[in-house]
Amino acid sequence: MPTGVYARKPLAERFAAKVNVNGPIPAHRPDLGPCHEWTGATQSQGYGEILVDGRPQLAHRVAFRLAEGRWPEPCALHHCDNHPCVNRGHLFEGTKHENSLDMAAKGRGGRPRKDGTRRAPLTQCRTNEPGNAPASPSIESEPPGPSRITGLSTTGITCGANPR
Length: 164
Prior knowledge:
Largest sheet: 2 strands, antiparallel
Helix content: 25-40%
Number of strands: 6
Number of domains: 2
Structural class: alpha+beta
Strand order of the largest sheet: 1-2
Order of helices and strands: HEEEEHEEHHHH
Shape: globular
Strand content: 5-15%
Mean pLDDT: 77
């Protein structure tokens, strides 16, 4: 072999070298057993990442591929809700919509703010709190809609934004 050239290890070997099989047991699903946590490179959201054919791939999707011989369609989702987990027994196939429903059912979703909290949904209590009283409708306007009552644009209400 020429100087400076080396054979790359097989994907399964490179993958296994970056997995801690003694990860935490999910408190909400102890029946799953321990997570196998990715110890290699991660994305900002905490998902593992590994190069496959020169391109970065999510480690939990690669775990699915190594176990099943095919890529998950369309997504690989976590029963354990642990982003670095690559335990095939904790993964299931689903759509982005199913992932959103799963997150909502478990009280997750949305990006954390700088203080670590997540955006709260709009509720009657929040919109009628002291200091958040709705503006009086003007005489020339139609009956107040959601944007007039909350002080948010219709886009803000649809997208779940909070008043600032």
